[in-house]
Amino acid sequence: MDIVKVLIVDDSAFMRKLISEFLTEDSRVEVIGTARNGRDALDKIKALKPDVVTLDVEMPVMDGLEALNRIMNECPTAVVMLSSTTKEGTENTFAAMDSGAFDFVAKPTGAISLDLHKIKTELLEKVMAASRANVHKLQKNALNMEISPSFWEKYSKIDSIVSTKKEKNNKTWSYRNRKIIVIGTSTGGPKALQTVLTELPLDIDASILIVQHMPPGFTKSLATRLNSLCKIKVKEAEEGELIQKGVAYIAPGGFHLKVKKVGMSLAVLLDQSELRNGHRPSVDVLFESVSEMKDLAKIAVIMTGMGMDGAAGLIKLKQRGPLKAIAESQETSIIFGMPKAAIKTNLIDCIEDVEKIAKTIISFC
User: Fold this and answer.
1) Domain that holds residue 280
2) Residue 168 clears pLDDT 90, i.e. is over it
3) Which residues share a beta bridge with 30?
4) CB 283 within 8 A of CB 338
């Protein structure tokens, strides 16, 4: 078994000690060093060559954002950010994701979190996942990479299965049906969502519901940020609001996103029922709720993320009405878990690089 070598970067000696203790409880992890600031971190990354770096955002001398930019340019390494849930903290988190961070973990109560044990499991899971990530995909130009020749060979068998399903779907698909687009994503999702949503036209003939695995306090900032970049309106979903065409609704962190009928319209239904696949919001919960709207044609998209959230919901969507399903390719996924699980259902119509997903959505609309 390969040991994952981790460097911990935090200006607080207490936090460095706590994070080290949490991670080394797992025999698969070795903490090979710690650093007090970004400058110290750069030197130690070059010397120790860790597999993963946990990086605090707020530090003296050189903060986490500047350090991250230099890490990705000078010594590319998988980085998991530790962020606060303040307004500035959430904004810095999305800036970090743009700069190549693998993912982030929210500190429960600020810079020095005495209750850090609350995120111990999440931190370990993300460190282990980061150790398996292709670091080159995390660099700023990762989404502009060309498809390797092995891509089509890799999926030739899958595509032959999918084409059979596609013929079946085409028999029931009607472009006259009212459409709804449902999107599920996790690790690497904010950047993937930006790539897809910014390419959708203002007059798209469908409403869009999104589950991005993310804790409370971050989804509103994500929606605000995407709204500033997109032609369509993007917002955090609110309980009871009527769902409109040309609007993307992002599930609030900590709430499942569902839909309910209100006369001839659909409205947002939020609840805090039990976690599914370890998540709330869950992609499966959204997909299953939308599957009950039998008069709608559904376009489902599964993008980068750990685990298999969305696969079971995809099956429900297929059982209950017209469906077109898209999975992000392994070539552009930061983590290929969720798209891979979706592909294994044999219900995927198209496997696309992330920059081609919007065009495929539009073709189905």
Assistant:
1) 150-364
2) no
3) 5
4) yes
